[in-house]
Write a structure and sequence with these properties.
Shape: globular
Radius of gyration: 24 Å
Number of strands: 18
Number of helices: 22
Helix content: 40-55%
Structural class: alpha+beta
Largest sheet: 6 strands, mixed
């Protein structure tokens, strides 16, 4: 291989450094996220998406660049969040598809792959908007193709890509009026520039700092108040499609036999239900992002092709109203009391990562608490008040918190019910079953029913010698707990986890979610995931850094 060629190992390191550089600067990208109705924070979404891709690449580092690219594409597809994350995944899906048969690539092939990624991303977006990450990707890929006509060295081509990406980013305010109004560049485009900066640094053998970079010419423009005030440019009632809806469809052979899947037809059919549509698919599933007024219709349509997984629905009108009401005004003292939202969901969590996960799937208030710090009735009542809703649903996620939650529901003035979730996985399953258009009793029944369809596994350690459930356990042994019953023990944490999962995963298991605890090492997670993927290839695996204490791993099996 010549110095001008790019193999899988070097490309993997490019991806890893690109992901790390984006992660270090995610908050800066968030600060630029100025659109009136955000799907979430752009930097956070892109960071989580790229991190998922990099994690898959780390597990598949090899000489063959096509196979590394396929791993990147798979990781990005499963981890993509929000508009920006999905578009990022499509850029590298097209890139990876272009190189999948190649063991290494030269400069021209690299440029063509970038251009293929742009074509794939534009195709995935129903109504592409210029002045966004799409424009930055398109302009820089076009520059790469031009440079490759006279230059074979990938380092030189990547320098031209980054130079044009920065220039294109600085032009985004001329294409999107809201950017010029606020005085910032496009957030998604800035995120892509950070990824490309990581790519170039790795190609040059350099390491970028872990500290955030200073955004060019933005120091005086990006501030919390400036960021908030942009939301006042739009009236809440002007939002035509009020629900940001994301879901995946896992294809089912029986349904496909009578209703063959076509990505183009699927995209065209869904476009009738809203806007901001993104559709991406592979051989096993299709992922959808859409702003719709009837999210249920979108889900029903998706079920024609298979089973629904990873659903998330957010009320963007409520998001926008909250943002507007948070903007200070000279008349703030005379402002009317905040109007109560229809529903509020209060949940209990141990670990900041799990708390973030609950918020991302619809929780309005997360109380910090768990096995060793059960929240009081007063804590729960306070959270009920804070969500400011007419109807409140409480998810205790621990059997020791259920009574306090029920007591809080009884004493509060609001109409409140408790869905008696005993574990975090049960709480997640219940929250995903929430239907904002249903009544309180109907939601209580449906969410309680969802508790029966998830199995919970936990790995923790013994604090003393004991004999229980037929096991002789010594202090510091790792114990595997399946739905409240200790079923395995081992001196090795990963082996205990493997033994536990072997007893819990069966032929009906489709999705395994792994929540990593604060004491579990990354190499232990990698070893466990490799074991699962090798032994249970049909089970879809998701990994989240739950940061929970005491429990090295929490498993949700559906």
């Amino acid at each position: 291989m010549s110095k001008r060629d790019l193999d899988g190992k070097l490309f993997a390191e490019m991806v890893i450094q690109g992901a790390n550089h984006l992660s270090a600067n995610a908050k800066l990208v968030d600060a630029l996220n100025v659109f009136p109705v955000p799907d979430g924070d752009t930097g956070t979404n892109m960071n989580l998406s790229m991190t998922s891709g990099a994690k898959e690449v780390k597990a598949n580092i090899q000489e063959h660049i096509g196979k590394v690219g396929s791993a990147l594409s798979k990781g990005l597809l499963m981890g993509a969040r929000g508009n920006s994350g999905v578009i990022l995944s499509q850029l590298f899906r097209g890139f990876s598809k272009h190189i999948e048969q190649k063991s290494s690539i030269n400069g021209k092939e690299f440029a063509d792959a970038l251009n293929s990624g742009v074509e794939t991303a534009y195709k995935a977006v129903m109504k592409p908007v210029e002045g966004t990450i799409l424009t930055v990707a398109k302009d820089s890929a076009k520059k790469a193709v031009q440079a490759a006509k006279n230059e074979d060295d990938i380092v030189v081509i990547m320098e031209e890509v980054l130079k044009e990406a920065r220039a294109s980013l600085n032009r985004t305010p001329d294409l999107l009026p809201v950017l010029k109004e606020v005085g910032v560049v496009d957030s998604g485009g800035q995120g892509l520039v950070f990824v490309y900066e990581g790519f170039l640094a790795e190609l040059k053998g350099e390491k970028l700092p872990d500290t955030p970079a200073a955004l060019p010419k933005m120091d005086d423009l990006v501030s919390a108040e400036h960021h908030k005030n942009v939301h006042s440019f739009m009236n809440t009632e002007d939002i035509e499609f009020g629900y940001c809806t994301e879901f995946m469809v896992k294809f089912e052979t029986e349904k496909l036999s009578s209703n063959p899947f076509s990505e183009d037809k699927f995209r065209q059919d869904l476009s009738k239900y809203g806007d901001s549509l993104l559709v991406i698919a592979d051989e096993q599933l299709v992922k959808v992002h859409i702003h719709s007024e009837q999210p249920g219709d979108c889900l029903t349509y998706g079920q024609r092709y298979g089973s629904l997984i990873n659903m998330k629905i957010e009320n963007m009108r409520q998001q926008h109203t909250n943002l507007i009401e948070d903007v200070p005004t000279p008349l703030a003292a005379e402002a009317k009391p905040k109007e109560k939202q229809e529903y509020g969901i209060v949940t209990v969590s141990m670990g900041s990562g799990i708390a973030d996960l609950f918020r991302s799937i619809g929780a309005h208030a997360v109380i910090e608490g768990g096995q060793t710090m059960n929240p009081s009735t007063e804590d729960i009542v306070k959270a009920i008040k804070e969500v400011n809703a007419k109807k409140v649903i409480i998810l205790p996620n621990n059997k020791n918190i259920i009574m306090a939650a029920q007591q809080a529901a009884e004493v509060t003035e609001e109409a409140a019910v408790v869905v008696p979730s005993k574990t975090v996985p049960q709480g997640m399953a219940a929250l995903l079953a929430f239907n904002p258009s249903a009544g309180l009793e109907e939601n209580e029944e449906g969410m309680s029913e969802a508790l029966q369809h998830v199995k919970t596994g936990q790995i923790t350690f013994a604090v003393r010698d004991t004999s229980i459930d037929g096991l002789e356990i010594e202090k510091d042994d790792f114990m595997g707990i399946a739905d409240g019953k200790i079923v395995v023990k081992n001196k090795d944490r990963v082996q205990a986890a493997k033994d536990l999962l072997d007893g819990m995963i069966d032929e009906d298991s489709e999705i395994l979610t792994v929540l990593k605890g604060e004491d579990a090492a990354e190499e232990e997670v990698d070893a466990l995931i490799s074991y699962i993927e090798d032994k249970y290839g049909d089970v879809e695996v998701e990994v989240h850094d739950g940061k929970q204490p005491l429990y090295s791993f929490i498993f949700s099996i559906e």
